[in-house]
From TrEMBL:
InterPro entries: DUF4079 (IPR025067). Pfam families: DUF4079. Keywords: Membrane, Signal, Transmembrane, Transmembrane helix. The chain crosses the membrane at residues 103-121, 147-166, 178-199, 211-232. This is Uncharacterized protein. It comes from Triparma strigata. Residues 1-39 form the signal peptide.
Length: 235
């Protein structure tokens, strides 16, 4: 029994260390993206700025996306001609192509994700058994994971739209800080979705990690939205 418990403890420790490394990598990717965001503002003065260590590190981190660029670009290329034809036929106005993605994702962020995070904190504060009109008859504890799952689904779906629309408008593929924070945010959302599986074995520590990481993820997603608006104003 003692040996079995020791093995379980070692496995849990290795799993925690792997998760921590993954989180740190995603946060480093997001931080480098935020530091390099001014590099994507179209300005001759900014183009003339000498390379800095922060910009160099952001380029190195962006290269982490290189292995997935070919398949994702091939996927985007399937849809780009359809958008081009729709635009030529007058079915897809320029404004819709340019701002449709940020409007849709901003709506999900400001409504589902923000309210879902609020509900998560209510659970944390001991109000999980309560309900209100917005939880549609369910308790906060029941509604929180459903709402956040829906938000994550729309974020993943919207990410595909961002890839296609960016490609259709001739943007560099997966090179902007907005793209880097998108992958960091989606990765953190996936970790968030997996953390409740450790609630029973991890206890209070796992629940605290879920709360802290969730709050940080929301902050990153708002930064991601800001970078998207900045990028949208450069072309």
């Amino acid at each position: 029994m003692h040996l079995s418990n020791k093995c379980c403890h070692l496995l849990h420790l290795k799993h925690s260390q792997a998760m921590h490394r993954t989180v740190l990598l995603l946060l480093a990717l997001a931080f480098a993206a935020m530091q390099s965001s001014d590099a994507f503002v179209v300005s001759p003065a900014k183009r003339a700025l000498p390379a800095s260590p922060l910009r160099a590190s952001s380029v190195e981190l962006a290269s982490l996306l290189d292995p997935i660029k070919p398949p994702l670009e091939s996927y985007a290329d399937i849809w780009v001609p359809l958008f081009a034809k729709a635009q030529e036929a007058g079915l897809a106005p320029e404004a819709a192509l340019h701002w449709g993605h940020p409007l849709a994702m901003g709506t999900v962020l400001a409504t589902m994700a923000t309210f879902g995070s609020y509900l998560g904190w209510q659970v944390r504060l001991g109000n999980g058994g309560d309900s209100n009109a917005l939880t549609m008859g369910e308790t906060i504890r029941e509604f929180h994971p459903k709402l956040m799952t829906g938000a994550m689904f729309f974020f993943f779906l919207g990410g595909q739209g961002g890839l296609v629309l960016g490609k259709a408008q001739g943007l560099p593929f997966l090179e902007s800080p907005h793209a880097m924070t998108a992958f960091a945010g989606l990765g953190l959302l996936a970790l968030q979705a997996a953390l409740p599986l450790a609630f029973e074995s991890g206890g209070a520590a796992a629940r605290t990690a879920h709360t802290v990481l969730g709050t940080g993820t929301m902050g990153l997603l708002f930064v991601h939205a800001g970078l998207g608006l900045q990028l949208g104003q450069t072309f």
